[in-house]
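How a chain folds remains the central question behind the approach discussed here. This step matters because it turns folding into a mapping between discrete strings. The sequence in question and its structure tokens are set out directly beneath this paragraph.
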Amino acid sequence: MSGTLDKLQEKGKSLVYDLTHLEVNTIIKDEMDASKAPGSPRLLLHGLAKNFHEKLLFLGTKYQKYFDLPKDGKNLFRGEEVNLGSGFESFKELSIRAASSFEMLKAKKDELIKAEGEIVVKADIMMLQRIETISDDIRRILKVDGVDLFKGDPLHDFDKKDTINDFRAMRSKDAEQYELNLDVRQFMVIKKANDIGTETVVLQTIIGIDGDVTTRVTRAFAENPISFIHTSHNEAIGVSVDFWKNLINVVVKMGESFFGLFTK
């Protein structure tokens, strides 16, 4: 019973934090297809795993020339590709590959900075850390009992690429039985991870309900600011704050109505 209460308390703390803190990110993408992100958690995870996989391949190719390793046909950072799906084992593999790649770059950081530049190398190191951290966050969600009802099922192994391809081809009604069973916070963690993916976050502003405001700016953008990006970021903050206020008011009114039932 205490375990259940602890989980409820932890979720309660997370909900309170989410309601009392607003985060606005401005991201630079190389390309946009303008398509709407899928609502399916399975497909969101698969898109995220695919992005991480491709980023490791890209960075591995980029830094290959700085490492004296046998040319066995395997990518420097991605290594042997065992799981190409988006289940627990897939994100475990991505996390391990990102962590080992991070250590490789860190060991030769001074040499690499001289060749590639400090901003570039540090950004790539941070990207590897992001892939490891988010992959571990996803693994923690997938490990929770009841989230993935097909975990360990060899006939519906979502660590295999073919399984997710079959899932994508199903009718919505048929696919629902294979979907992840997530609460709102777990879904939002996956959605945010997919939104940011491997993109460059140039501006991030976090506003607390107590009035604290923290804005983070990447060094590359700070040294070469672009006015319209600043303007877009500030406008996004304004829209988000208005929505945030309305959301909090709704929650407060719901709370007042709920407690009012017990005070009459």
Notes: The mean pLDDT is 85. The domain at 1-29+200-264 is CATH 3.30.1310 (Ybab; Chain: A;). The chain has two domains: 1-29+200-264, 33-198.
